[in-house]
Structures are given as structure tokens and as C-alpha cells.
Amino acid sequence: MKKALLILSILFVSMSYGQEVKQIPQINVNGEGKVKVVPDQATIAVTVETKGNNAKDVKKQNDEKIDAVLKFIKKMNLAPADYKTQRVSLNPQYDYEKKKHSYNATQTIEILLRDLSKYDELMEGLVNEGINRIDNVTFQSSKLAQYQSEARKLAMKDAKLKAEDYVSVLGQKVGRAMTISDNSQTYYPQPMYAAMKTMERSDASAPRETLAVGEINITANVTVSFILE
């Protein structure tokens, strides 16, 4: 019985290898969709940094500045959910030449500014209240998900158009998609902002221009495999 089963297994394997593997005609193409958007909000990371020889005094001074900064932010009528403490630190530092310890206290606040018309007022007020380090400013769109969806659709249309161009000379047609790979990345411009530095104008009454937000390129990249008919 075992011998018969072994013979049947060998015959089955032989028949399987003897059969031809049917190849499905297909084409692989890349597609790109791009949407350019003017930012309508910004995420700002600012820090109060205080140095001194006494840890308790350094922390106290830093806390006082942060208190003034938070009160100013509240006066700007920002929603409580739009600003938060990102990190806090108090670190000892040793000066080997003077053989003395000093201390460095920092607290970083992250702010989501939904109205860019308040940008200059906010930045100048922060500096006046004690902010001495602007770590990062990232401009973005409040409708990012919508624009990403548009970019993805454009990428798929681009991929199908490319496939149709390639196969049109072969007398074939592009069929349904077999696989789709999303290779998208979103880029946010992150300009360096010098606090209190503005463009000088000869006309003092003219409004100052301190911000050039530019555009966000929201790009979707896909790789699609289409069946050929």
C-alpha cells in the first residue's frame, strides 16, 4: 500500500512539473500626482533658556519667563489644545578652566498657529516675553488629507496614462490593476526664522513683510501593475 501511494505521489509531482505555468501579460508603471498648496497654518517650537550658577535660581527664572510667555499666548486667544509644553530640562554644566559648575534650564513650547495673519504679532510678543530660541517653524495646510487624496488620484491617472501610451503601439489595451504600491512622501518647507529681523522699508508707514510662506508640494507616487488585454 505504501509503495502504491509513493508511486502515485511521484506521478502527481511529475504531472505538475509537466504542466506549463500560464503567464499573465502585464505592465508595471510609476505614476506621480502633485498638488501645490499655499500654507494656512504653522507649527512653531520656541524655547526659554536660562543659565546661572545656582540650580534653584536658574529654574525659578526660567519658570517666571515661561509663565509670562503662557499668559501672552492666552491673550492671543489661542485654543488651549493648540499649545503645549514639549520638553523641560535642567542640566548641570562644568567649566574645567574655572573649575565651577553652572546650570542650564530650558523649556520648549510647541504652538499651532491656525491664523497666519497673527504670525508677526505672536513671534514678536514671544521674544518680548522671554523666548530666546526659536527652534523650528513648519508651515502646513489644514486641509492636508483632502489634498493628499487629490494627489493620489492624480498619481493613479498618471500611471494609467503612461501604461496606455506604452501599449498603444502594440495593439493591446490596459486592463484592471493587479497591484498598487504607494511610495508617497509629504514635504513641508521649514524656513529659518530670525526673531525680530524684518525687511527695512524707506516708507515707515508701509506694512512690514517678515514672512514668505511659499508653497507646499503635496506629492503622491505609486507603482501600478496592469493586466494587458
UniProtKB/TrEMBL annotation:
Pfam families, per database record: SIMPL (PF04402)
Range of residues in the leader sequence: 1-18
Alphabetized UniProt keyword annotations: Coiled coil, Signal
Key word Coiled coil present: yes
One GO term of the biological process aspect: DNA damage response
Coiled coil (UniProt feature): 109-164
Keyword set includes Coiled coil: yes
InterPro entries, per the entry: 26kDa_periplasmic_antigen, SIMPL/DUF541
The protein's name in its UniProt record: DUF541 domain-containing protein
